[in-house]
Structures are given as structure tokens and as C-alpha cells.
Specification:
Blueprint: H1 6-14, H2 23-32, E1 41-48, E2 60-64, E3 75-78, H3 84-90, E4 94-96, H4 98-105, E5 113-116, H5 121-125, H6 128-131, H7 149-158, E6 160-164, E7 170-177, H8 182-198, E8 209-216, E9 222-224
Helix pairs in contact: 2-8, 3-7
Amino acid sequence: MSKLTKNRKAVLAKIEPNKVYKLGEAAALLKEITFTKFDASVDLDVRLGVDPRKSNQMVRGVVTLPHGTGKTVRVLVLCTPEKETEAKEAGADYVGLDEYIEKIKGGWTDVDVIITTPNVMAKVGALGRVLGPRGLMPNPKTGTVTMEVGKAVKEVKAGKIDFKVDKFGIVHSSIGKVTFTPEQIVDNANEFMNTIIKLKPTTAKGTYVQSVFLSTTMSPGLQIDPKSVETK
């Protein structure tokens, strides 16, 4: 068994075993239990009482976090020439079509979000084997297949993220950075949780939100009382 480091001991000393924290308490405590030299991400894990194997219990959606994610989001817009200026002016990092399709076929996926227009989806659809496993495939349901590419780029850059429940019934997402204030973390968490609650499938039985944990990249998870989330 490996020995506990000094930092690890300090972290464990600050956490009360088996305690279920209020959201505000946990957001403040995160700063005290994170010792990374980089700006760690703040992660939220929500276990839901759904069966993702059933299509009518799939939970998937998009949310715009009020304080963004704290990450620099690299956006590629695949579009025809008449939309290129709109995409560039909105802040897209890469704009084009055929040259980027060829790059992606060759294995290039050095972006975080891909936005495209409906009229080029026939070409983009051929990239499914490359983009699908990486979660990069544009989808009308998440607003990444649209004629309003400028609006879509601005929303993504401002903190719009998409999420879906995994096969274990858990929704996982980064909702900020440890350098955010506790109030900013709480605001983002509330917005994320409210979106999940609104997406509750009508076929879901029993307790919908079964557990919520807040953590940073290298910290232990802090269990959150779902009742401490401010519902709208």
C-alpha cells in the first residue's frame, strides 16, 4: 500500500467521512482540497434513476453555464464559402470544408466542437467513424447543425455544453475551474442541475436524482444534497 502524501493527508483531514454537503459548502471546500499546480476542472457527476438502454429514458441535452466552463474551446466550422465570414467573425478557430474533411479522414481531431450547416451534412456524415467515438459528431439536437453558425459559435465559446447519460445512468460534466469563486461554481451547478431535472423522462420511475458528487480533477468527490440545489 502506498503511503499517503502530505497533501493527501491534509485533504482527508478537511473532509468529514460520510457527510452529505450542501452545494455552497462543497463549492467552497473544493478550493481547500485541491493542490494541483494547474487550474483544475470542477466536475459534476449525477447518477439518475433511468435505464439508458431504453430510448424513452435517454437523458441528453444542452446547457449554457452562466459563467462558462473556464476552458478555451476550439471550434471548427464546416461550411460552404458563403458562411465562412460569419463563422470567422463569431470567433471560430478553424473554418472551411473539403480541406478539413480530408484532414479528419487522416486522423486530425484537434478541436473540441464541430459546427456545420445542414447542406453539408452528407459530406460530414461520412466522418462518423472518426468523429462519433470522440463525441465530435455534429447533431441538430445540440445546436451544432444549423444555418446560424455565427450564433452557434458564440454560444459554444460562451459556455454552452452538451451532455448525455452514460450506460451506467450517470451524467458527467465539467462545470468550471477551481479558480472560479464558490458563487460561480454554485451558479453553474444550479444551472446544470436544473437542466437535468427539466429533462426527466416521463417513463422514469422512483427517485430521479439518486446522487450528486462534486470534485476537481485530482480531488476526492464530495457528495451533494440534491435538495440544496436551487430549482427554478
